[in-house]
Automatic annotation (TrEMBL):
UniProt family annotation: Belongs to the polysaccharide monooxygenase AA9 family.
A GO biological process held by the record: cellulose catabolic process
Record protein name field: lytic cellulose monooxygenase (C4-dehydrogenating)
EC supergroup of this enzyme: oxidoreductase
UniProt xrefs under Pfam families: AA9
Coiled-coil ranges (or none): none
UniProt signal peptide: 1-18
Protein localization: Secreted
GO cellular component annotations of the record: extracellular region
Domain of life of the organism encoding this protein: Eukaryota
Amino acid sequence: MSFATFSILAALAATVSAHGYVNNASIGGVSYTGYQPYQDPYTSPLPDRIFRAIQGNGPVEDLTSIDIQCGGYTAGGIVGSSPAKLTAGPVAAGSKVDLYWTLWPESHMGPVITYMALCPGGDCTTFEPESDAVWFKVQEAGRTGTSDVWASDAIEKAGGFLSYTIPSCLTPGSYLVRHEVIALHAAYAYPGAQFYPSCHQIKVTGSGTTTPSSLVSFPGAYKATDPGITYDAYKASAYTIPGPALFTCGGSAGSAASSVSSSASAPGATSVASNSTIPAITTSAAVIETAAPIASVAPTTLQTLVQTSSAAPVASAAPEAAADDC
């Protein structure tokens, strides 16, 4: 192999490894393969998933684009907001969901945020939020003080997985979940922050009676001037997680047996909440079924990230094409 060829391949590999997406999930003790952007479009028949389509391992950078909602590439014909065929569950409110990511570079530091939206009529397979305000935040984690420890570190150091907990007080029903990592390595000016969102569909059971009423839209929840969007991650300064306040049972805006409103305005950015930590991760699923095996890992918290330098790497589900930018 010539030096020139080797250099090109090395550069391509570096670009590919610079991005990631949710490869699979453990929900209610059942494992689900995520949307595989480099396999599914070329498979016949198209595999049925609980995850909506994503354009690949590259980011969304335009806050005004519908692609910010679920990670599509509308200009290229991939509408990420289009419903998936399946819905995961049933899963009890109060349960923890584990999401396993592909490889993620330490240089792409940033927050991890998860939102949910109640699907009208109990059916997510026909629900497209469009620009309606339907989303409430159920998980957020950012920077530990002014240190170099970020929530995104868990993807690399916890073996590739992140978690969120379904609020125990939620009204039973089908929900669309929007989970994202925001990479801030180039966020000192806008556009610069890189958004890696994806959406999956779950059916929640339980005896809860609360439907959050303080809702936001995507696009709309974030603005270019938000301190959590335009931010110099290389300075030792406190970080403000973007988006609305975190919804908590009994502690945030919600109403008993109320319907989802599509007219709520997006609140401004809020400070890091005291409970904004990566939760301890355990998985009830014995086997995670993916196109490639995933290394097992020990339960990890944000505290242990400071003490642990690395964990077993996660195998990518498929050879990945290079994205536009790192």
